[in-house]
């Protein structure tokens, strides 16, 4: 295929060092996304297996995503300052800053889950709840993987699909929330562990939210359209009431 | 004082329409900050007084901050695209995008607290816990007010002070977290209300975190230096264990 028919090359600018700089940004986002994804996976594995060693690895890996965010931010600003990018490149650059911020938060969520592995170690953790958490995290991870794919392949379609699927995570989170409350009421010895698991569930739900934010940035980057903020709204547990007799 | 000695006027660009555009951004940030601050105040008042009407106002006000963020983002990108800003202006513009994102999240936190007002209405809410929450929210609001001042007055000093004070909020949040767990263990009928209050406390702690993020953006905007990510790290409750017998 001749070079000029390749839409993604945006042939209008000729400075190849500039192209390389833009590609550097996208490559760094992809790498950062890979690290964040691995941190989420490992934090859940550590939680399921009470693996304190693995959880400590996740905690220290958080520095990698922090550093990546700083680097992407600095590079983005430096490209804008020196290259005076045209509109479509500018969208890519601004989207990189936003996506890096969301990935950094996802790293924080994974780190927070990892810290709780240490807190709940040795406490009774109802198996059924752990399975529920695992299921929730699988959905969140799928969202994260697909939105990173959408970013790498510049697919507005895929980004849109991710954004629309966030509701599923929210529904499962809400039912897990109810279940956790019920366990706490059944036996006060469950309260400490369940509270930590509640925050783990909330962290996973927020990972889903950040994946949705990234989907919006990818959509903006590829289409130039900022999606309306009216998306299916997250966490419905704020209105959940469970009473001791289960009503 | 002669115009040219005023550092903040950045006399290098002469297009006054451009200055107005930059000022528009900062004015919009200040307005948005005012709305976010009011939402936080009102969500806490609603929680303290079980005022469902006020909580509904907070929930609908969230649209204002969502809209403000979108507007600031669009304006920022359009200024960069058309004006090719020089480095120091570019920092202001990039910082506006970041600050608007944090303010939008603060609005979300206030909305989440407001939603829980409805969930806990009519349930027993230990007075001492509510006072603890109120105290936590006063600290978070002080942080928010001061960081908005730092932004309006372009004070790197003030921004630095806000960033360093985040630890205080974290310490109080951690003790409140312990107290909430203890109440739940004492009487299972407290569990539903306490769980919602736990999330309210977490939301307030996160408002403090977002104020700290804004402090970092203001610091960057005024000095050009990105503060190292190693700041006093938030939520220490992830390692809190409370057992039924209170040990």
Describe the structure.
- Chain A is mainly α and 247 residues long.
- Chain A is built from 7 helices and no strands.
- Chain A has helices at residues 16-48, 52-83, 87-120, 127-152, 156-164, 166-186, 191-223.
- In chain A, helix 2 (52-83) runs antiparallel to helix 3 (87-120) and helix 6 packs antiparallel against helix 7 (191-223).
- The longest helix of chain A has 34 residues, at 87-120.
- The radius of gyration of chain A is 20 Å and the shape is elongated.
- Chain A starts with 15 loop residues before the first helix and ends in a 24-residue tail after the last helix.
- At the A-B interface, helix 2, helix 3, helix 6 and helix 7 of A face helix 2, helix 3, helix 6 and helix 7 of B.
Number of helices of chain A: 7
Distance between the termini of chain A: 65 Å
Tally the beta strands of chain A: 0
Structural class, from helix and strand content of chain A? mainly alpha
Low-pLDDT runs of chain A: 1-11
Which two chains touch over the largest interface? A-B, 48 and 49 residues
Radius of gyration of chain A: 20 Å
Round the mean pLDDT of chain A to the nearest integer and report it: 88
Which series of helices and strands of chain A comes N to C?
Answer: HHHHHHH
Largest sheet of chain A: none
Quaternary state reads homodimer
* Principal-axis shape of chain A: elongated
User: What is the helix fraction of residues of chain A, given as a range?
Assistant: over 70%
Residue fraction in strands of chain A: under 5%
């Amino acid at each position: 295929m001749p070079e000029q028919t390749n839409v993604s090359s945006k042939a209008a600018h000729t400075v190849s060092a500039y192209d390389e700089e833009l590609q550097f940004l996208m490559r760094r986002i992809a790498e950062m996304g890979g690290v964040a994804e691995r941190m989420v996976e490992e934090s859940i594995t550590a939680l399921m297996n009470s693996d304190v060693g693995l959880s400590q690895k996740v905690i220290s890996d958080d520095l990698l995503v922090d550093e990546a965010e700083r680097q992407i931010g600095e590079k983005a600003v430096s490209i804008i300052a020196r290259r005076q990018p045209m509109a479509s490149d500018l969208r890519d650059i601004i989207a990189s800053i936003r996506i890096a911020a969301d990935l950094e938060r996802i790293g924080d969520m994974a780190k927070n889950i990892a810290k709780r592995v240490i807190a709940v170690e040795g406490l009774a953790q109802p198996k059924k709840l752990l399975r529920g958490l695992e299921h929730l995290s699988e959905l969140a991870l799928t969202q994260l993987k697909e939105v990173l794919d959408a970013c790498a392949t510049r697919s507005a379609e895929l980004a849109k699909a991710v954004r629309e699927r966030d509701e599923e995570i929210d529904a499962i989170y809400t039912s897990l929330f109810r279940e956790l409350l019920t366990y706490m009421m059944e036996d006060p010895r469950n309260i400490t562990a369940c509270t930590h698991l509640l925050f783990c569930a909330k962290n996973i739900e927020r990972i889903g939210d950040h994946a949705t934010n990234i989907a919006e940035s990818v959509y903006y980057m590829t289409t130039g359209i900022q999606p309306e903020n009216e998306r299916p709204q997250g966490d419905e547990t704020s209105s959940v009431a469970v009473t001791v007799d289960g009503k």
